[in-house]
Amino acid sequence: MSPPSANHVTSGIAADFVVDRVRRHESRNRGAYFAFQLDRPESVRIFDPAERGQHVECTCEEFRSSQVICIHIYWLFDGLNSALQTPRAPGTQQTVSPGDVLTQISALYGLIGSRLSLLPSLLGATRDEISSDTDDGMDAVDSPAFFDTRADQVRDMLSVFDTAILPEDYDPRNASTPAGNEQQGLYVPNNLPATIFQMAVRDEKVFESLRDVVTHDICANVHFSKLRTRAREAFARLDSYIENGPEDDAETAGHDIPQCATILRIIVDQICQFRDCRESSGPLSAPVKRRVAEILVEIFQEVCNRNEDVYYRIGWEREVANGEPDRNRNLYAYLIDDPPRSNSSTPNWMKDTFIIDRLGQMPADEWRHLIERLTSIVDQMRERMEDEDDPPLAYTKLERIIQEYTLEAFEPSSSSVQRRPTLSSHRQSQRRRFE
Which of 122, 186, 223, 301 is found 20 to 30 A from 53 (Cα to Cα)? Predict the structure, then answer.
């Protein structure tokens, strides 16, 4: 790379940009793309590589006039790599070529979709860490606070009244709203939600009145319920695919085991990320936290119930790729018993032991009411285990979590001598404890 080009890369990486919002758009002529609106007129667009190949563009004058990678794209490329993969020391991207940018940023398209709502905060946190003079900034980015702006909180409250849309996707100012209404005052013609949005964002009294009615816990409960519904829909689409094969319906076409497993991992990550985000912006009540654990255990149990070759008795002809692993025919195997191996580019949320690692990170008070259910799941996994000498990692970890909780919950006091309960006697002990 020539010196001017290297300087161009350095300028982009060192730039002080901020992502205001990330949106996914569908264009009949141009296909699907993610638009990263910066805190200025420029917007960077990353197109679906399945439709447009490796195509990225920016609305800035430099890119429009010369079609060369601009500083906005370089900045976003470096930030996305840090936020979605492994944070790196400053300056390691200064020798990247334009071809590398297109290849690597297009490869992140799927990960962008899975972290869409968190990316503005993730990018901001990552840039702050990279610009730090300390070595601590090279560690993985912590969960960012998301509901910290007035607009985000209002969007969160108003999205409660929609049956499906999540807060991060909710936009009361829909496409039918004429441009420029923001400058015409609080009133948005023909759009009550947009008018309420403007009033709540700009007027403290309106905001407080709305918050009194739509509380922090209500928003969280509705949010987690929508994610639970999405998980159930993922299972339903898999069932439809198994029953009928590929269909013209875009919702079920190609919704096989790997696709369903990826969607479930994304949903689990969203549940846990937003639990942490909401907790950091305002304490959640104990019932809401317990509900999060219930949803996670429900998803885990449903996967355990699907420990079978789903294509064994299908009534349609399925094309089988050469060397297809057995896990691609069994959702339990794909997520729990024999998950695909990870590598250095695999994001952390795809590496952990499905759901069990997340439960292990939660305080026991949030899931102890599910101890009987978890014990039943361990028994179920044990009964279906082919090799007891080599159990799945999820089984080993879940059994350990139950044992540690049991020993702690029934630790004998110094004034009495009691026998510690074993895992096999755990059910009887728990019935006495929770009756």
Answer: 122
